[in-house]
Amino acid sequence: MLTDANVILRFLLDDHPQLSPRAAAVFERAAGGEIRLLIPAAILAECVYTLKSFYKLDRATLAAGLLDVLALPGVEALEGRAVGEALRVFGAKNVDFADAYLNALSLSLSYPVVTFDRDLGKLGAEVLET
């Protein structure tokens, strides 16, 4: 099942009296092998944005929480390796999640990045001169 940001956020934050228990039940079903939860990178980006801008979580806490969710049984990120690395870099460095994700995707696929942003090169991506 593709999983939306609102389910992840209610599960992670446990802040809604009706929706948080329902979200927890979905993750319990995944842990029990009844369903598989797939989380697209764009949904994780929405979670990062919401947790950082609205809930004011610091980078390290935010990244650790989302990595914990991705480590749960029955839960998987699409482009999992790149997404996991992007969350680790985002949590440790002062970079946007999108830049961390593009860098991780570049490294995992061995594709250079066409960009005007030199910061991506500092992260390790091969940046093509434009």
Describe this protein's structure.
The chain is built from 7 helices and 4 strands; from the N terminus they run ααβααβααβαβ. The model has no long low-confidence stretch (mean pLDDT 93). α1 crosses α3 (41-53) and α4 (59-70) runs antiparallel to α5 (80-92). With 130 residues, the chain is mostly helical. The protein has helices spanning 5-13, 19-31, 41-53, 59-70, 80-92, 97-109, 119-123, and strands at residues 37-39, 75-77, 113-114, 127-128.
What Rg is obtained from the alpha carbons, in whole angstroms?
16 Å
Uncertain regions spanning at least 5 consecutive residues: none
Order of helices and strands: HHEHHEHHEHE
The count of strands amounts to: 4
- What is the CA–CA distance across the termini? 40 Å
Order of strands in the sheet with most strands? 1-2
Counting helices, strands and paired strands, the structural category is mainly alpha
Return the average pLDDT rounded to an integer.
93
Q: Helix segment count?
A: 7
| Oligomeric category | single chain
Q: Helix amount, in percent?
A: 55-70%
Beta-strand residue percentage: 5-15%
Summarize the biggest pleated sheet.
2 strands, parallel
- Overall spatial form: globular
List the helices and strands and how they pair.
Layout: H1 5-13, H2 19-31, E1 37-39, H3 41-53, H4 59-70, E2 75-77, H5 80-92, H6 97-109, E3 113-114, H7 119-123, E4 127-128
Parallel strand pairs: 1-2, 3-4
